[in-house]
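Need tokens for this chain, all 118 residues.
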Amino acid sequence: QVQLVESGGGLVQPGGSLRLSCAASGLTFSLYGVNWYRQSPGKERELVASTSRSGGTYYADSAKGRLSISRDNAKATLYLQMNSRKPEATDVYYCNAVKEIGGTGMYWGQGTQVTVSS
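Here are the structure tokens for all 118 residues:
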């Protein structure tokens, strides 16, 4: 059974930082491209950062300079280092894995909430 479990969310003050983690199990992590999505209240889920199995990265324009994605294949874990953005924002961050080699497969985590508030 494949599981993606996010952690590290919570309350952060404006200008502060957090590191989100996504621990994967039940899959060969190194075969997957892995992504972070963000969903704000009343809005659709949007891709903010991704990293391919080869280590290439992509950032949405809104994330550039503020988010940093990384992965540790040995630990089967994805990370997102984030510097908080506008005040009073509450978003849910989701981890997503998409198989790049040897078939198909896509999986989602349950999400972790990040609240920026003073």
